[in-house]
Amino acid sequence: MQKFSTITPEYLEVAKKSFENVHNKSELDALKAKYLGPKSTISQDLRQLIDIEKNQRANLGKQLNTVKKNLDEFYKKSQSSLMDATQLPSLDMSLPGKSLDKGFGHIHPTSQILAQTYQIFTELGFAIVDSDEIETDWYNFEALNMPPEHPARDMQDTFYIDNGKMNLLPRSHTSGMQVRFMEENTPPFKIIVPGRVFRNEDEDATHAWIFNQVEGLVVGEGVSMSDLKGTLLRVVRGLLGEDVEIRFRASYFPYTEPSVELDAFYQGNWLELGGAGMVHPQVLRNGGIDPDKYSGFAFGWGAERFAVVKYGIGDLRELWRPRFVFLEQF
Ligand code: DAH
Question: Domains of the chain: which residue ranges?
Fold first, then answer.
C-alpha cells in the first residue's frame, strides 16, 4: 500500500508550530510555498492519488484533503496574527507614557492635596461621597438652619438659577449633602463630601468664586467634640506634617452647636483652615435622625487653602489659571 507522509499527526504538528512561529511576511510566504505550494508534499501526495488502487483511493483522498484543510487554516491564522502585529509596528502598550517623564506635565497642586486628603480619610474609615453641583435651597440653606433672610446666608452669597422660583443654585458648599445623606442612611457613619462649590465672591489673593470644598460628617452614638479634634489633628498632620499643632477658636455656624474655627500652627504662623462643630440637633432632625440618641460632628474647608499653605502659594487665584510655568513648580 502506498504511504503518504502527510497523513501523520506529526506532520501536522510540525507544520502548525512553524506557522505559529512566523515573524514576517517573507517567512510566511516561504512556509506557504513549502506546505501548500505546487511543490509541497501535500500537493505531490494528492497528485499521486491517481496511482492508488481504486478501493483505497476514496478513503486516502478524504484523509489528504483533511490535511490540506488543516494546513490552509494554519496559514490563514498565521497571516491574520501577522497583520495584527504589523498594523501596530512599534506600539508597546506596556511602556510608560511620555507624559510621565519630567517636563511632560504633572499632577495639579489642588489634585495632589485632594488625593492625599482621600488617602488619609479612607485610612480613618471614612467613605467618600459625591453630590450634585446644583443643589436646592432647602438642602443648601434651610435644612442647615438658614431660612430665607437669615443673615448667615450672607457669608455665602451665591448665584441662583432663575427657574422662576429661585430655589436652585450652584451649591455654595458641600454641606448640603449632610441632610441628604442622613435621610438615606442610618448611623453610625463617617463621610467626606468633596466637590466644587460656587460663591458670588469678589476675587482676591485669598478668595475665589469657585473652589474645591471638603465637607466632613460623622454621626453615631456618643460622638463628641474630642473625636472631632482628634480626627482633625490626624488629618491636618497627615497633610501638613507631624509637627503641626491645631487649635479651635469659638465661632458661629447655624448648623453646628458649638461651632469652631480650625487653625493650624504651621511654619511659625497660625493659619485659618476651615470651620467645624457639633451637628446642631435640628439638622439631625431634618435628616430624620434622633438627636437624643445620636450626636455628630461636621467640618468643612477648601482644598485650595491647604495647597496655598503647604506649597507657599501667595495668590490662590494661580491655582485656577492655566500657567504651567507656575503650576509645574509644585
Ligand atoms: N460650610 C462652611 C463653609 O462653606 C464650612 C463648614 C463650617 C462646614 C462648619 C461644616 C461646619 O460642616 O460644621 O464655609
Answer: 9-86, 100-327
pLDDT one-digit tens code per residue, 150-170:
988 888 888 888 888 889 999
Q: Which residues share a beta bridge with 127? A: 191
The domain defined by 100-327 folds into: BirA Bifunctional Protein; domain 2 (3.30.930)
137 pocket-lining for ligand 1 (C-beta < 6 Å): no
Local structure of 251: helix, strand or coil: strand
Ligand 1 pocket: which of 140, 150, 156, 175 to mutate (most atoms within 8 A of CB): 175
Q: 112, 307 in Cβ contact below 8 A?
A: yes
The tens digit of pLDDT for each residue in 215-260 reads 999 999 999 999 999 999 999 999 999 999 999 999 999 999 999 9
Helices 41-48 and 54-87 cross at an angle (nearest 10°) of 160
Residue to probe by mutation, ligand 1, list 173, 257, 283, most atoms within 8 Å of CB: 173
Beta-strand runs (E) in the chain: 127-128, 134-136, 168-170, 189-198, 210-220, 245-253, 256-266, 269-279, 295-302
Report the C-alpha dihedral over residues 252, 255, 260, 263, rounded to 10 degrees: -110
Distance (Å, whole) CA 29 – CA 27: 5
Cell numbers placing 87? 498594523
pTM for this model (two decimals): 0.71
Contact criterion met (CB below 8 Å) for 249 and 258: no
Diameter over CA atoms, the chain:
109
**Residue whose CA is closest, atom 8 of ligand 1?**
300
Q: Is 171 in the pocket of ligand 1 (CB under 6 A)?
A: no
